[in-house]
Amino acid sequence: MSSKPAQAVLHPARVRPWADFITLTKPRVNLLVLVTTVIGFHLGNQGDADLALLFNTVVGTLLVASGAGAFNQVFERDVDAKMRRTMSRPLPDRRVEVSDAAWFALALSAAGVLQLWLGANALAAGVALTTLVLYTLVYTPMKRISSLATIVGSVPGALPPVIGWAASNGTLALEAWVLFGIMFFWQMPHVLALSYMFREDYARGGIRVLSVEDPDGRSTGLQMVNYSAALVPVSLLPSIIGMAGRLYFAAAVLLGLAGVVMAVRFARHRSQARARQLFYVSLVYLPVLWVLMLANRA
To answer: What is the 3-class SS of 239-265, one letter each residue?
Structure first.
């Protein structure tokens, strides 16, 4: 009997190695990156849509984000091996060589920055490069040192709409930083809820998120409330500075208050279920807000 079928069963990754390289890019995370980049592009666009420019912006940003995701998994392969939710990733499971993953990450990142530079403009490429450096060289190693890494990590996480704005508008105007602010303050309760849900796994991996340093969740709940409350006035700025109209303003108030209520509920009675509820509410909040901002542009 041939040994080939047995080898295919024992080593399924050899049959489809491309799937492991796609996993290295963190495709689910990149979906949010692309959506917010497109939002920033359309809000910054002052004339007719330039489809070639949009294509180069989206693909370039996707390549940089994918490279950042791959670099993150290269640097955290030992951590991923200790955590249940990540131990089956290609590197800790040894389905991909570390050197191959590193070269893959470098190639994606370089290609993305180059495409943004040549296909959009140097400003968009510069913002993307800044995002890559902050995520891979600052945030990623800092996660093992301090829970403040969550705040630091929210900076590159909030820059994709700025990349889109810079690509279509050629500036870093006030509006671009308003989009950044919305993303930044939205991320904090979102990530804090996620980290509370998986706090035991993060502790196992040696990741210093707030929920690990704060076993009873009191400080985590307080921070959720603070950032959710801060998001409300920040989310109203598009209407105040003339980016969006009254419909957006009213919806932003209601969405923001819903987030605050969920954060307060968690802070008062901290539980896995309430953290999960806040997490899911945050997932609904952002796309609804973006759609309303686009639909009700001033």
So the answer is: HHCCCECHHHHHHHHHHHHHHHHHHHH
The residue among 60, 64, 74 whose CA lies nearest residue 103 is 74
Is a pLDDT exceeding 90 seen at residue 259?
Answer: yes
In DSSP terms, 244 is beta-bridged to 297
Strand stretches in the chain, DSSP E: none
∠ CA(230), CA(62), CA(73), 5° rounding?
85
Check pLDDT > 80 for residue 5.
no
**Alpha-carbon span 122 to 190, nearest angstrom:** 32
Percent of the chain at pLDDT above 70?
94
61-70: per-residue pLDDT in tens?
999 999 999 9
In degrees rounded to 5, what are phi and psi of residue 297? -60, 140
Q: Which of 214, 190, 186, 188 is nearest to 202 (CA)?
A: 214
Contacts of 269 (CB under 8 A, 6+ apart): none
Average per-residue pLDDT in the chain?
90
Burial class (CB in 10 A: 0-12, 13-18, 19+), 48: exposed
